[in-house]
Design brief:
The strands form three sheets. Strands 1-2-3-5-7-8-9-11 form an eight-stranded mixed β-sheet, with no helix packed on it. Strands 4-6 form a two-stranded parallel ribbon. The protein has a two-stranded parallel sheet with strand order 10-12. The radius of gyration is 36 Å and the shape is elongated. With about 270 residues, it is an alpha/beta fold. It contains five helices and twelve strands.
Length: about 270
């Protein structure tokens, strides 16, 4: 009888434990084997109580605005991170530390305007990056060079500024065409005369003017300083040369006077 009572108690405890939420799954999310789905949960930041063995994390359609240092706990086997349709405008350079196994990152449909080369440095295994439909006007190629395994890249539907500053990005894109997806949607927004012009349609000749006018800010500063200096130096040089000329002319005149009236010698 006692054994049956103990067995009943054990079953009751197991049943209660099953009803309790798992500490490794955020209360607002749905968790299954290796996957955490936090889509459309009105989240303003990344949940912290995540299991270290998850491989997929869905965080789309929330209100996350910033990824700060430590936004993600250590997730050594996370392969897929999805953050589309948030209000994401800033990613700190240390925000993605601990995601070295990540292979797919979706940051589309956000408010990103600037990305630094340090942002993706921890993502040494990243294969796919989606930056489509953000507010990127330019992108330093160093951001992409930091991803040695990158094979698929989305950059469509951004307000690209197609001035000389986009030349380095165009150069990277032209040498990595096979990685680019939706190339036809990679369009200039500014300046107005190039609005909706495809970036991939540029040629080397398109940037000829940039090479001809490739002076840096320090070059202009140098010319601004050397101009007045040269002017003053030329004035001093003219005065100096004029003085030398006058002295020489005077000495020459005195020399002629001595020849014309020799000194009388005593007898």
């Amino acid at each position: 009888m006692g054994s049956w009572r103990g067995l009943g108690t054990l079953i009751a405890c197991l049943f209660l434990l099953r009803l309790l939420p798992s500490p490794a799954c955020p209360a607002a999310c749905h968790c299954s084997a290796g996957e955490v789905d936090c889509t459309e949960r009105d989240l303003h930041e990344v949940p912290q109580n995540l299991s270290a063995n998850i491989s997929t994390l869905w965080l789309g359609y929330n209100f996350i605005t910033v990824l700060r240092p430590g936004s993600f706990p250590f997730l050594p086997v996370l392969l897929r991170l999805s953050l589309p349709h948030n209000h994401l405008g800033t990613i700190h350079s240390q925000a993605l530390v601990g995601l070295g196994a990540l292979q797919e990152l979706d940051l589309s449909n956000n408010y990103l305007t600037v990305l630094t080369s340090e942002t993706f440095l921890p993502l040494i295994s990243l294969v796919m990056l989606n930056l489509g439909s953000n507010r990127l006007g330019e992108l330093e190629p160093r951001v992409l060079y930091a991803l040695p395994q990158l094979q698929v890249l989305f950059l469509h539907s951004n307000p690209w500024v197609c001035t000389c500053s986009i030349q380095s990005l165009w150069h990277w894109l032209s040498h990595n065409r096979e990685k680019m997806k939706e190339k036809s949607l990679l369009l200039c927004r500014f300046p107005e005369q190039l609005n909706k012009y495809p970036i991939m349609a540029f040629k080397n000749e398109s940037f000829r003017q940039c090479r001809e006018n490739s002076l840096l800010a320090q070059d202009y500063a140098f010319f601004l300083l050397i101009g007045p200096f040269s002017f003053l130096a030329s004035i001093f040089l003219c005065i100096f040369m004029g003085s030398i000329t006058v002295v020489c002319h005077k000495l020459q005149k005195e020399s002629h006077s001595w020849r014309r009236f020799p000194v009388c010698r005593g007898r």
